[in-house]
Amino acid sequence: MSRTTLRAPSPDWTDPDCPVARTLDLVGDRWSLLVVRDAMDGARSFTEFQRRTGIARNILTDRLRKLIAHGVLAQRTAPSGRRQEYVLTDVGRDLFPVILTLRQWGERHAFAPGETHSTLVDQHGAPVPEIAPTGADGALLDTDTTHVQKTR
User: What ranges does the record give for the region Disordered, renumbered to this chain (predicted)?
Assistant: First the structure.
């Protein structure tokens, strides 16, 4: 599995030592994550991304360029041979747990009780179960059982 790695820290990093901040600098805006979400759901063309998200053409162009530059998406010739399409790279597919976690948080906190919403299902049509981080010992992890170990 190939990975894209950024060689040198950007002088524009929000917080150069924090993986969360760097990730947000790369894919943390609303449109980038919606493009990644739609790519995970099979969108491939500029037109599909625009139709699904409602994003303005200039913003979509910028986000697609940024996602390609950071190795999240790749551009290739569509099977028809007539246009380009966008596909997730291994780096982009690695965002699946992030999108899943955001989805599940939204299901719990962004909808009123009983309000309908889309459901993510597995290949058999069963709803994807809640994910929860666990430690090496199998115990659930949360803000009370973890801490950040600073580099300096």
Answer: 133-152
